[in-house]
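ok, trying the design again with the full structure, not the truncated one.
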């Protein structure tokens, strides 16, 4: 019974209009961290450096999406949860596509 009531709350609750703005601003620390990660790896002579960079970026973005899934679940915002799951799926799909093409 608790699952059905939680699902109905996720469907019925509207998302706050500033959620998209908060999501975009949450990308800023991730971008700064990735720039430092990129600068740190740039001078190193490591085989498959691009695979490490792509995997690191995907892991950071998937972690951020996991936070938004949790936030949406706690606030009963089903669209935030759904968009977080779609973001993780797209991220892993793009990484898989990149890895299979290289």
């Amino acid at each position: 019974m608790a699952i059905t009531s939680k699902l109905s709350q996720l469907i019925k609750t509207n998302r706050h209009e500033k959620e998209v703005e908060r999501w975009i601003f949450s990308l800023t620390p991730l971008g700064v961290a990735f720039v430092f990660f990129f600068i740190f790896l740039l001078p190193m002579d490591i085989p498959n450096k691009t695979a490490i960079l792509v995997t690191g970026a995907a892991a950071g973005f998937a972690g951020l999406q996991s936070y938004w899934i949790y936030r949406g679940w706690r606030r009963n915002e089903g669209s935030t949860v759904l968009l977080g799951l779609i973001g993780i799926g797209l991220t892993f799909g793009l990484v898989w596509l990149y890895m299979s093409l290289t």
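Keeping the full-length input from now on. The two ends are 48 Å apart (CA to CA).
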